[in-house]
Amino acid sequence: MTSPTLSPRTLPGKAPRGVRGGPTPLWWRDLSGATGWAVVLFVVALWVHEGGLTDLAGWGNGLTSLGRLAGLLASVLLLIQVALMARIPVVEQAWGQDELARVHRVVGFTSIWLMLAHIGLTTLGYADGTTLGVVGTFLDQVLHSGGMLLALAGTVALLMVVVTSVRRARRRLRYESWHLLHLYAYLGAGLALPHQLWTGTDFRASTVSTVFWWGLYAAVLAAVVVFRVLLPLIRTRRHRLVVGRVVHEAPGVVSVHVVGRDMHRLPVRAGQFFQWRFLDGQGWTRANPYSLSAAPDGRALRITARVVGDSTDRLTRLRPGVPVAIEGPYGRLHEGVATSERAVLIGAGIGITPLRALLESLPAGRDRTVLIQRVRSGEDVLGAELEDLARSRGARHYVLAGPRIKDRTSWLPEQYSLWADATALRHLVPDIAERDVYVCGPTPWMDAVVAAARDCGVPDAAVHTEQFAY
């Protein structure tokens, strides 16, 4: 194993040069959430103002009016869903990727159900005044109303995204396939726009409605273009990143060191992650998320991954000089969110890598940091390096090895099955309630750790997670 120098490479407890100020305040999360709700309520108010309630009189008109409302709400939630994953810096830093992903999923499922309700209700409403029947009315609308064919195609694209977002379906898909399919969300939103312009009376009912809807579409489009396209291109071009070297840390574990120009100006903290594209041939268009496994030192960035699929296997074949494109940095798993001077870092498997970087950047001092590493037998990631780093930083380092407990969901290995989760955590770290807790690993395992930490009295504001899954 090749280990880097373990002396501290950034000032303890301070952000690297290029990172201005602290993290985005948590009240920004409340503000952005309140803004989202205000936008939704404003859509309802527009529907009421344009006669939505009065149109409820009568069976056919009532169904059509409710269908209009469902369509309007589906549209605004779809735009909010896209905005949530547009990587807007203040939103991403206020919520964190884990929480954003959860909200994004809830909003997405709600939006598609409302969209289906819109199609069903309006079809029933229009069918009430014709002799075509429900199926005939639906076909007539699709074939003869402006933009309806495009809207139907957009709905199919969005349904494809939703189906592949179901947990059982996600488990059967490779990350690359899942990521590619989710790009259809942008296509679905775009295909719905002509239908709303040509046949959506609420879009053109008043100057306020027109300005609101056009402004909302323009704002979301601008956010996607600026933060998902232009900013990554600017940073990639400015820093001219290339692969410096590739280190095979252990069987099935590889580290990639990336170097570039003016690296000290890259606004990244230890514990954060980038979306990486290695421009070495086929597959470069697909970005993959990897956390930093070493604190940024102004000269290079390092990621470490376990080889489990095509994307991670590519890392083993990279050669020095391969250009690298990045999106980010993302994530709130960094020292800037700390609420205490002491911390507990708890990681499992390859999820230990951002915690290794975080350990390097947290203030050094005897017992200021406790590192708990959960491993299976023979798969200790960066084990010797972590041990040396913990010793140099004055941290306590525990390695809990062995297969998982089979008869309950637990963060402990099988040999500790007689221990309750919270009891074991309190035994290892008696003062855990007064520390920040940073957790990274597989989702069910993380949920068990977080539950145990809360049972130990750790407040929610002191629990910081990074989900090691898509």
From TrEMBL:
<keyword id="KW-0408">Iron</keyword>
<dbReference type="Pfam" id="PF01794">
    <property type="entry name" value="Ferric_reduct"/>
</dbReference>
<keyword id="KW-0812">Transmembrane</keyword>
<dbReference type="GO" id="GO:0046872">
    <property type="term" value="F:metal ion binding"/>
</dbReference>
<keyword id="KW-0274">FAD</keyword>
<feature type="transmembrane region" description="Helical">
    <location>
        <begin position="106"/>
        <end position="127"/>
    </location>
</feature>
<dbReference type="InterPro" id="IPR013130">
    <property type="entry name" value="Fe3_Rdtase_TM_dom"/>
</dbReference>
<feature type="domain" description="FAD-binding FR-type">
    <location>
        <begin position="236"/>
        <end position="336"/>
    </location>
</feature>
<dbReference type="InterPro" id="IPR050415">
    <property type="entry name" value="MRET"/>
</dbReference>
<dbReference type="InterPro" id="IPR039261">
    <property type="entry name" value="FNR_nucleotide-bd"/>
</dbReference>
<dbReference type="InterPro" id="IPR017927">
    <property type="entry name" value="FAD-bd_FR_type"/>
</dbReference>
<keyword id="KW-0560">Oxidoreductase</keyword>
<dbReference type="GO" id="GO:0050660">
    <property type="term" value="F:flavin adenine dinucleotide binding"/>
</dbReference>
<feature type="transmembrane region" description="Helical">
    <location>
        <begin position="26"/>
        <end position="49"/>
    </location>
</feature>
<protein>
    <submittedName>
        <fullName>Oxidoreductase</fullName>
    </submittedName>
</protein>
<keyword id="KW-0479">Metal-binding</keyword>
<dbReference type="InterPro" id="IPR017938">
    <property type="entry name" value="Riboflavin_synthase-like_b-brl"/>
</dbReference>
<dbReference type="GO" id="GO:0016491">
    <property type="term" value="F:oxidoreductase activity"/>
</dbReference>
<keyword id="KW-0411">Iron-sulfur</keyword>
<keyword id="KW-1133">Transmembrane helix</keyword>
<feature type="transmembrane region" description="Helical">
    <location>
        <begin position="147"/>
        <end position="166"/>
    </location>
</feature>
<dbReference type="InterPro" id="IPR001433">
    <property type="entry name" value="OxRdtase_FAD/NAD-bd"/>
</dbReference>
<keyword id="KW-0285">Flavoprotein</keyword>
<feature type="transmembrane region" description="Helical">
    <location>
        <begin position="211"/>
        <end position="231"/>
    </location>
</feature>
<keyword id="KW-0001">2Fe-2S</keyword>
<feature type="transmembrane region" description="Helical">
    <location>
        <begin position="69"/>
        <end position="86"/>
    </location>
</feature>
<dbReference type="GO" id="GO:0016020">
    <property type="term" value="C:membrane"/>
</dbReference>
<keyword id="KW-0472">Membrane</keyword>
<dbReference type="Pfam" id="PF00175">
    <property type="entry name" value="NAD_binding_1"/>
</dbReference>
<dbReference type="GO" id="GO:0051537">
    <property type="term" value="F:2 iron, 2 sulfur cluster binding"/>
</dbReference>
<feature type="transmembrane region" description="Helical">
    <location>
        <begin position="178"/>
        <end position="199"/>
    </location>
</feature>
